[in-house]
Amino acid sequence: MASKHEVHASNTREAFANFFKGIGEYFSDFGKAITKGDIGVKLSTIFMGAGYFARKKYIVGILATLFEALFVVMCIFYAAPNLAKFGTLGTTVRSTQFDPVTMQNTVIKGDNSFLILLNSVIALFLIFVFILLWIHNIKRAYELQQDSEKGMHINTFVEDVKSLVNGRFNITLLTLPTIGVILMNVIPILILIAIAFTNYDQQHMPPSALFTWVGITNFKNILSLSNNSAFGYAFFKVLGWTLVWAFFSTFTCFLGGIVMAKLITYRKVKFPKFWRTLFVVTIAVPQFVTLLLVRYFFGDTGIVNSICSSIGVTDFLKTIGLVKSHLTYIPFLTSPGWSKFMIVMINIWVGVPYQMLVATGVLINIPESQVESAKLDGANAWQIFWHVTMPYVMFVEGPTLITDFVRNINNFNVIYLLTQDTFVTTNQQLANANAKEVDLLVTWLFRLTNDYYNYKMASVIGIIVFIICAVFSLIAFSKFLSGGREESYQ
Amino acid sequence: MENTINDKVISKNDTLAEKELKLRSKKKSELASTIIINVLIAIFALIWIIPIVWLLVTAFSKYRGIDTAHFFPAQGWTLDNFKIVLFEPDSVVQYMAWFKNTLVIAIFSCIISTVFVLMVSYVFSCMRFRGRQAMMKFSIILNMFPGVLSMIAVYFVMKQLGLTNSHVGMVIVYSAGSGLGYLICKGFMDTIPTSIREAARLDGASEAEIFFKIILPLSKPIIVYTVISAFLAPWADFVFAKLMLNSGISSDWTVAIGLYNMLGKDLKSHYFSIFCAGGLLISIPISALFVLMQKYYVEGVTGGASKG
Questions:
Q1: Which residue in B50, B145, B149, B242 has the most chain A C-beta atoms within 10 A of its own C-beta, making it the best mutation to test that interface?
Q2: Which class is A226-298+333-489 in CATH?
Q3: Which residue intervals of A332-389 are DSSP H helices?
Q4: Distance between A289 CA and the closest CA of chain B, angstroms
Q5: Is the pTM of this model over 0.90?
Q6: Residue A263 and residue B122: Cβ atoms within 8 Å?
Q7: Parts of chain A belonging to CATH 1.10.3720.10
Q8: What is the mean pLDDT of chain B?
């Protein structure tokens, strides 16, 4: 065990070392290019096309210089005015002023903090990308210089273009997807991180009001355990339930899936295909249909409640104290305790068929020899299940188990569709923070943004959730995907 | 002497009889366990199918609200709910418009997503270049950040671009970041033997030719899987659609939001059975595609393995 840990540690250390070595090389290459480059290379630190002109690559040279000019124009007209206000996020509020000359109200267009933030983030990102390209350009110019000194062939423009479908095909293929990811993932995440350090909420909504930087106040607010912070109280409550939920939903569905798969593939079961189709049908129906349906199925005045009260289940639950005596129904989805239980149960209903499909595939591939030798050694079915089947399933499904856990931390649909509009919290402290007992961090975040415009807190929650998910994922990767594991079943 | 022989015979007879008895009881217990296990699975199936049956029967119910006392419609059966859903749009039910919107969004985002995923998978699986490892690691970390969390920022970016309440915006939201979901497809392409690509390269084929003429035709099952899963995403999505299409003009909505809206506080007592009819109609094509997708997924994964 100790040696294993050492391996892990050395792996991580190596990875870190490689990372820094890579960065070091990146900059030392750059320094070499500048110091050892000829006049063309040195000039290309100012005019990006210079290096290409020196090698008679005029079209590329013009394009590179044009690109640089475009960047300068962007800086002057877009980046500079926004970044100038980035420190304050705007100072003048929009107002109307009476103009005695024209006898009319004129609107003084004030600053819009959000636009300043958004544009500044985009501008900073563009500048960052430009610097990378600028460095790359100088290195490339130096490479060309070396090539020509060695007397190697230097590609013409046509050849350069042609290489985009051959040697540099990766650039052609990756450009659009990368732009998409930057637009949809990178920029939004950067903005989210920035907002977490501002006071952007309903009282500070541009354009009628401004918001500004507040440092780590929001983080302090949410992580404080003192009783006067509604958000701190709500956060730890919601976090607790989120983790409990993620644990139970993941493991119930995982075990349920294996049991179900075992059951259906059991040799004595008649018509296994028919049963499997039945289960699969239930996951094929979209969740927003089934979950909304189930929500009314278990409503306070829903059909399950009518049946339960007519056959006496409601009264029985009252006598054993599981339902409060003043109620005439079972609060399946309206009391905290019952809802949490029901949400996990309903999630089993939603998740087990899917896990069954996965588990069936895994169980088919169990090495026959292991089962046979276990049988020869006199193991019974139960022992085989626990000592042969389960280790194998854990080996194959271990990593997915963690990804499922992370996905369940963010399982928006099940919670939102089952409890939105119907579940009302009676806990005043939670209500102050716009949270509910059954909320996950994500549903809380969604409500904060969509209904209460509390963007600062939503952003803080977003960052915290990301950190939690990242930690679990990293543990998973280092535990399951580190070296030496692959061979166990080969 | 005799005695012992007799004893032996008796004991032999005894064991034979015992064996037969054991065999019989074994058969009996086998029969019992067969029955038990089949009944058990039938009970499970019943639990799983009840809500679906409820959906089915309520869709044909004459009573429009939520029947709290009867499982099967007590006021009689009718096809009216389907007629309203399909042919008689009103201010609440714009089913055909929703269907059309979702279909258009799904088709376009499916095309873009599939193209992106295939491009990224090919690059990471078949090409070797500097920065490949770093890009793959970075994309894995980025993919850990759930889309739901950054949706406010996505919303603002789209609003700045003037793309909220527009279907173009929805297509972008669903497909722009799809390049990150390359893992399954790359896994498949990894199983295609490198010797095929090397042979083609020796014959003078360019990377583009290898991509279009060799890898893509060999990747059919995983392409079908990618196409179907990308096509299904907009039908199942609820969060982004609700955030982005917030103008309140019901004819702009997607099926998911439209159906959700029918169960609002004031509407559900008049529209519940219509909701069921609409939900049922949407479920049929989606289930069919889902089953097809599963088939191709299995084919892609197992077929790929045998090839490698």
A1: B149
A2: mainly alpha
A3: 336-364, 368-376, 381-384
A4: 6
A5: no
A6: no
A7: 226-298+333-489
A8: 84
